Amino acid sequence: MKSTFSTFLFAAFLLFAGILTTSSGCKTTPVTVEEETITNQYARLPLDIDTETQKEANRFSWLTFIALNWPADTNTCGPDTSNGNTILSGNGPVVWETFLSSDELFVAPPATPDTWCAQDNSGKYFKTLPQKIQDLARKTGVYRFLHRNSKSPHGLEQAVGGPLVDQNGRFVRYEVRMNQDEYNYIMTNSLWDTTGQQKFVADSTISMPAGPTGFGPIGAMEFKAAWKVIGKGDDASRFYTIKAIVYNDDAEDPSPGENPVTLGLVGLHIAHKTATQRNWVWSTFEHVDNLTKSFYNPSCDTCPINQPIAGTNYIELNPDGTPINAPTQVTRVNPIADTFVDSVNLHFQSLLKGSVWANYQLVSTQWLLFENMNPEFLANSVQETYVQGPNPPSYGGFKLTIDQQYFEDTLYQPFAPGISASCMGCHFVANVPGSTAKSDFSFMLGEAK
Predict the structure, then answer these.
(1) Domain parsing of the chain, residue ranges
(2) CA 157 to CA 273: how far, in whole Å?
(3) pLDDT tens, 189-241?
(4) Other CB atoms closer than 10 Å to residue 339's CB: what's the count?
(5) What is the pTM for the complete model shown?
(6) Distance between CA atoms of 380 and 388, rounded to whole angstroms?
């Protein structure tokens, strides 16, 4: 179902009137004047990149990061700005964590997806969990679950290469979420299961909402987070942390060892389809300790670099809870090709000084400027560890051709060996399962059952 032109005009009127609210209840008026202290102004999501510069794109990413990591009102799944509450508290859950996960949306029929803003202990998804997990949640009061989630639909693996192992021998865990605009589009068009997808693409093209539409005022957004178990040698005060019940291995039982566990956020992808960026804006953040401590041992000169663990039967812990696998020695293969990101990082880290969020950095922002992706290659060290590619980076012998809106069809194969990571380049190949129809840069639809 497509929005009517009158709906669009009404949304545009509300936007310019300054009274349009986000799907989660917060105003979407973009931050135009940066204040030198954190105020409620920063709880607003920016709508688009204001000017055509990489510095502005990076600023857009940071403003988005702050708004999404603002403490949430769990009744509205929007920011809580009451009683002086700000991002500086480091308290959670934060806004994006209240959005539905792919697990909660892409359920197996005849079950139906959770409603928007459902809580973990009351939504339909909770009732589908193994009984042992439900019992543990009720016993401990912890209703956050990380069960073989990843930035792709392939268990504990990254998109390519298998699990990532931290310096304590624990697997990194991933989760995928979406905002309400994308949720509304998927639900309205019955794209949450494979039958609905096939019916839709038979005579329509998947086109996620971009900016103010009948599906919401923000445009589609997707979030892919990476978490590490806080353990020996980790300073929990440097991370944004959560308590969660984790599943390991291929069993649907709680993990051996301590459970629930404390996890620290180590990586966050934010993809946003805006009015001017129909190929989406790709912002990727990571913790500043990733390449110096959490996933790198400076005392080991012989540790193999960026090598996944052998085999495909990924088992994390022995029955007594001790780790099985050696840590992954992670390094960045290619320098960040963004001359503006360091200064923008310093500005916002200074703004967030004294909070855990000052310990995060923007790797870069990939976006389309005329006929070029800026930067052309982009990798997060804990989400694309094994596809950082050679130095210099490579498309593997093929070159993507780009016009102002869409890629030309090419032979680019982002999951082949020797290919360098590119957010936009990789997601361009996303198709509806069982079809050649494009899924508008979203691999999430591949999780439909």
Answers:
(1) 5-367
(2) 26
(3) 999 999 999 999 999 999 999 988 989 999 999 999 999 999 999 999 999 99
(4) 10
(5) 0.90
(6) 8
